[in-house]
Write a structure and sequence with these properties.
mainly alpha, about 0% strand, rod-shaped
């Protein structure tokens, strides 16, 4: 009779160990998946930072070119103005032409500035979307990791309860 109880306990313990091994392997696979997903998020974040840096450098270069172009146009306008001042006796038509040229230079600068502001707004929108997507992905991975941990704890609790129940049964049968 005691041999039967011991044999049954060994059988149940063996089954429990097989289940534990299977659950540990599953947890290992889940943790490997979570690790892979976290590595992918880190890689994507690095690529996004690189892209953002490139956009900032491009925008900076564009601003420098626009500034240089404006300086050239202002210098050209100033030279034209100096020539006109030297020829004070020039006609009113020439003065109007000079005013038009300066007005066009100011208009070109304004248009370039508007284009730059539009591009910077698009960059800001893209950055906001990228950050929101990264936050969503991170929340998803954290939720998956929490679920894996919860399942692991529940499994361990069930194993402990089964062992306690078997121990109580064996004690009752032995008595």
């Amino acid at each position: 009779m005691a041999a039967e109880v011991v044999a049954e306990l060994r059988q149940k313990l063996s089954e429990s160990m097989v289940q534990d091994t299977a659950m540990l392997e599953e947890r290992g696979r889940l943790l490997a998946t979570v690790t892979t997903l976290l590595d992918a998020v880190n890689h994507a974040s690095t690529e996004q930072r690189t892209a953002i840096d490139a956009l900032v450098q491009t925008s900076s270069g564009l601003m420098e070119r626009v500034g240089a172009r404006f300086d050239q146009q202002v210098e050209t306008g100033a030279q034209t103005l100096e020539g006109a001042a030297a020829q004070v006796t020039g006609s009113a038509v020439e003065m109007a032409s000079l005013g038009d040229a300066f007005g066009q230079a100011v208009q070109h600068f304004g248009e370039s500035n508007d284009k730059l502001m539009t591009q910077l707004q698009r960059i800001e929108t893209a950055l906001d979307k990228s950050l929101a997507r990264s936050d969503d992905q991170l929340a998803y991975y954290v939720a998956q990791a929490k679920e894996v941990i919860d399942l692991s704890l529940l499994s361990q609790k069930q194993i402990v309860e089964n062992l306690q129940r078997l121990s109580i049964q064996a004690g009752a049968e032995a008595a």
